[in-house]
User: Fold this.
Amino acid sequence: MQRRPSLWWPTPARPQRFFSDADLSASLAYNHPLRRAGLLAALSRLVLLVLAARLAGLIDQAMADDPATSETMLDSFSASAIPALTGGVLTALALRLPSNVADAWFEYRHEPRVLGTVPSPVRWFLGVVTATTLLFAAISTVGSWALFQLVGSREQWPLILSSAIVGSVIAVTALERSVRHWVKVRTGRICESGLDPARADFEHLATLFGLDGISFLCERGRASETLDAALPAEHSPVSMLDGATAYTTGIGPNRRVVVSQKLMSEPPATRNFVVAHEIAHVSARHVLVQTLIGTTSAIAFVWICAALAADGRPWAWFGMEPLSPCSLPILALIVTTYSALVAPATSWLARSHERQADLGAFGAVGLQDLDVIRTLYLAPDIDLEPPWWVRLYSNHPTPAERLEFLRRLGVGRSWA
Assistant:
């Protein structure tokens, strides 16, 4: 008798058991360069942050040691705003430059070569890159200056910041419905139309889990939003990568399931199982759990920063005073290190949530054939054989692990 698969640990499976050599080759051709580009961008970001922190330290020392500079400082605002601007700009460049280069390679080299797609106009791409970098620099500058003012004027700043994080989460949760309505009206990306006649089926699925009051919304494909009207949708790279997916968001009265436009074109058995999977997330309150974990992690990071600031060594390495207004690159380094250490644990929990949702969907609607789910993984952007370091940080089981999990629940297969 086959043992029931675990919800907490992966179910080992070889991708060759579920996918043909052609499927695996197509996935490898698309995703292998992306893995290398992503790893290179991450390492470049780390190196640039170290260089930015060192440069910020030199600038901070020069401003502190130069009498002429000190005399030009009119008040405490300018004395902290100029270093904050320096740290904000350096951090924005360190974080955004590798991503911008990777995006340009993806848009103008990788996608056209692998999929034969037509890239976006260069002027539009450069405009988006410039706008996002400047916006990030502005937000970073204001945030670092505000943090310095808080740290410099109050001894209990970790407690104040922790309370602010909790208050922000509560405020965002309370205002989520209003924000969603505004975004829906302004962009039309997510709307209530497009679900008929499947809406009745989705509402029935919710009753199977003992739930009511869930909103079901449809998300339009990204190809319908192309800015170049002369570009045929079938040649748009985003149109080829719009997945047949759904996701869950919201807490309490704001909970909802958003279904992609492409999923609505799938057979009823496919879309019903995918939507039942998302409703199982709602039933198990996974969004709430993930929100609490994220809030706890953010508060823990604040207190770790307080401990490091009290020690002072991370700032001394770069020639700065602890939590000076110029030290945003150092905080970004700490965030990167902290995320790299914490993310595997939170990703492991997220993968267990995915298995729990699959188990709930299987119990609610059943599944006769694995091909109902397997075909969803045949899109070119899905990595069918991710390496260990991708799996370590992924929030979802690999396609083969998920299919093997369902097979051990008793689902059959109809393909050769």
Remarks:
- The first strand starts at residue 190 and ends at 191.
- The chain has one domain: 21-408.
- The radius of gyration is 24 Å.
